[in-house]
Amino acid sequence: MAKVKVKRHGVSLDMTAMCDVAFLLLTFFILTAKARPDEAVQVTPPTSIAQTPIKDSEIITITVSNDGRIFMGADAQPVRLGMLEKMGEKNKISFTAEEKEQFKLMENFGVPVGSLKQLLDLESEERKKEGVQRGIPCDSVRNELGDWVLYARMYNPKQRIVIKADSKSEYKVVKNIIDALQTQKINNFNLITGQENDPGVVPKKKKG
Q1: pLDDT at 142 over 70
Q2: Other Cβ atoms within 10 Å of 124 Cβ, number
């Protein structure tokens, strides 16, 4: 008896729906991605074996450059605007709407409040030039850093303090910062360090 041959049909797969999904996901990630602004100063923190992660929201970052200049930044734009207005009121400095908008977009800054208007008039690339930002005063004579932290925490008391100091910066600068925080009864803060291997942990041998 002769076998009946079954006619084979070519398989057709409609990829239209898959392409639409991929395009929608790509669009979503592009629109929701947050571009990180350039920092005013780059530092290389000391290394440690600590592995405690620090959340990247609701934080106030105090940065110390290798030559001892102090910079500060808050991650939330409403906080930046609020502390700027309070500092302006205390020092009798009036900031324009355009200057406030510029300040809201700054990742961090490092000048005395009296020089802030001149800094805001500069372009982003000019602000990063050597010698433009000479640091926020933080000593017994002028403790502007303490005022900035105070006003920032007025708008969000839950904000955590993060100190990011360069490995070559002097300890006395960091101590001045800690003293300024303790005058406001802030005793809990984090120090950012680079990753270092724990000498007490024996690395696993690779198989093969």
Answers
A1: yes
A2: 12
